[in-house]
Amino acid sequence: MKGRRWLAPLLAAALAGLTIFLLGRLTRPKYASGQTLEGSMVENYYAHADEEHEVLFIGDCEVYESFSPVTLFEEFGLTSYIRGSAQQLMWQSYYLLRDTLRYETPRAVVLTVCSLRYAEPQSEAYNRMTLDGMRLSPDKLSAVRASLTEGESELGYYIPLLRYHSRVFELTGEDLTHLFRYPEHTYNGYLMRTEAVPYTRLPAAPLLKDPAFGEKPVAYLNRIVELCREKGIELILVKSPCLYPAWYEAWDEWLEAYAREQGVTYLNAIPHMEEMGIDLNTDTYDGGIHLNVFGAEKYTRWFARTALLRLGLADQRQNEAAAAPYAALAARYEQEKRAKAEDGR
Amino acid sequence: MTFLSGRFLLLVGTLLIIYYILPKRLRYLALLAGSVAFYALAGKGYLPFLLFTILSVYATARLLGRSLDRQKEYVALHKKDLPREALAAYKKRQNGRRTALFLLCLLVNLGILGALKYTPFLLEAFRAPYAVSWVLPLGISFYTFQSLGYLMDVKRGKYPPEKNLLRYALFASFFPQMIQGPISRYDMLSQTLYEGADFDWDRLGAGLVRILWGAAKKLVLADRLTPALALLFAPGGAYRGGWVLLGMFLYALRLYADFTGGIDMALGIGELFGVTLPENFDRPYLSKNIEAYWTRWHMTMGSWFRDYVFYPLNVSKTFLRWTRALRARFGSGFLSRLPLYAATLVTWLLTGVWHGAGWNFALWGLTNGLVIIASLTLKPLYDRFHSRFPALKATRSYGAFEILRTFLLMCLIRLWDCYAGPAGVWQAFSSLFTTFNYGAVAAGLSALGLSLGDWVTVLLGAALLLFVSLKKGDAPFRRFLNTPGKLWGAAALLLILTLLLGAYGPGYTASDFIYGQF
């Protein structure tokens, strides 16, 4: 025994490590119910990473509330996944793209440009919703470092117990149910909302003092362009049809020039809302800020016809392997849509 | 940089590896390098102050030691050929020189400490037309006192001065004791500081358990209470009467958990390197009177003031002459003890201002001194009472009464810590007897920002601390943790509990130890 003095410390370290890991899983927020469901979406992807996705949508609420992968598959035969989360910043999108490329290489990446407006990290809560679900990798480390707000602890992103330990007095059954896997609320990353809250009035757009985007988001946009070029991926920059926060003409002009210079596509969907058939009385769930499922389906159809079909992507509806996950997905999708519509939600 | 920062943990981890890789004779150099790195990382501009103290005290101690050696040689050489008076005159001359040298070093170092610590306060107190503000070098009160204690011991010939500058520098700057002590004595610390301990898993485990026990006290108990106490003691006096009483008890718990937690961590870190730092607490809240309390709370500071301020003052020629004169005139009564009381008050005033620059600190010190004097003065009365009821003192209930009385007294004295200015302290104190809202306190506990889970944790934590104290400190637990499995299991359990139940993260500043500011 004298010669094996290291055994007890080793076992104790292993036991402590395992317990801390499990307690981290137990105490982290599960985003299982209530209004905030977005925090589970980034992790949900890994359960679908072995499926085939020709199109990868990436960005903030302008992707996960605006594009319906089910519609895209059912009507156009295009397989897709959305790696989006609430207020996902440009550098987070870059590292999530790199993270995704570890598992698959899509033919096209659709990136929402709305987050170019944010030059610096905004809030810990949004950071957490994007980064907590990322698997540990060098990309996660870089994403965390790029995202930390003042006073945030980096270590808490790798050892969740350090951040969420105070939830020990607030645990519910949901925490145990979803101990090892976040609940899945989305359809390949699309978060369905069925309510219809008509557009009436939105706050006036504040005066744009400096039309230039910040250095940091532009640098990461450049890195995304470079990465897609390197991997032979078609990149489409998109501004989804949302009326608020305001999208300025100066930004639009800058992006058009940028897209020309980089040889990528840039689409601003706002002027095409009528062409899509979007009715702001019925197709938005919050008075024009985000689309509901009916608006998202219209926008998805328009986007597929305008931007995706011309890429020559194959119709996968007859491909059994690619189509397999969509049967159950579509059934669940229609069921939720119907149920929520019947509930009046 | 403090004990609970990632950088500190990284520093200790790296240092441990380097320490045990190096040959034994060089290991103290790793500790010195680690101490310098710790201090350099702790704050810009701190290092020159520490360096000055090290160099000035080292050089002065060497000169004092050389003078003592020369004196011994001279006396031995001339013992037979010189008259006794000539030798005495020589010794007196030498002693005078040493005293001058000693005082110069003492005053310069105390001057630096005083200037840095008290100038902003004094300028404000005397309404100077300008103000200054700066950050006090980390641990300056602790390393200055430790160094000056060493210097006084060398001057008294208690031990020879350390000849190796690097070894001395390590004694003065050993990093675990820099944040909040303990204040070590050279003759004790040097026994383990330089020897280069052998690697020992059991000692490593014991050190880790001590560190984690301290961290648990700090994070689970002390820091959990911080927001509630900030509310209770907020300026404006919204919380009076029963809230003051609650605040007194919670503050006592927080201070104990915070300070003993920090000291446990310092001692545990020392243990990782095989260095034995002195204990600083001996279950002080179980003391039966205030004198006993002060021999059990912050013991190294108390003994420092006793050995280097109180005793020298009380047995100084001036005080002895004063005592003799008073005895001749007034006999052995109260008045003849005036010099003793004066020495007590001076010692406690200095103890108070050592803690910080502010009237409250001075008044806190003086209150302690006055209570001790009152206790000494009334001792004959107590003795007479107990001689009439001899069985009473032996009873458990009387012992409990004495403990509770001392605890309450110390809580009341600590009101100086909690409220700004004498008016604030008086209002809080008097409200204990004039505002009878004790029922509302029980009903309104949730208003302090602590959840039911928090209160349960605090109560269980306090009960555990009491249990450990009643079990005569941590010695029985050390005996219980007598196998590697139990030892390392305890470390793992403490780590998990601290991480799970600790009050840290947003809203808490876990790294700020209360005594770190002194």
Give an account of the 3D structure.
The complex is a heterodimer of chains A (345) and B (518). Chain A is of the alpha/beta class and 345 residues long. Chain A has one domain (37-153, 187-343): Rossmann fold (3-Layer(aba) Sandwich). Chain A has helices spanning 7-27, 41-44, 61-64, 69-76, 90-101, 124-131, 138-147, 155-158, 160-164, 173-177, 215-231, 249-262, 273-276, 293-308, 320-343, and strands spanning 55-59, 80-84, 108-112, 234-239, 265-268. In chain A, strands 2-1-3-4-5 form a 5-stranded parallel sheet, sandwiched between helices. Chain A starts with 6 loop residues before the first helix and ends with a helix. In chain A, 43% of the residues are buried. The model of chain A has no long low-confidence stretch (mean pLDDT 91). The model of chain B has no long low-confidence stretch (mean pLDDT 90). The interface between A and B is medium-sized, with 26 and 26 residues.
Question: Can you summarize this structure?
Answer:
The complex is a heterodimer of chains A (345) and B (518). Chain A has 345 residues and is α/β, with parallel strands linked by helices.
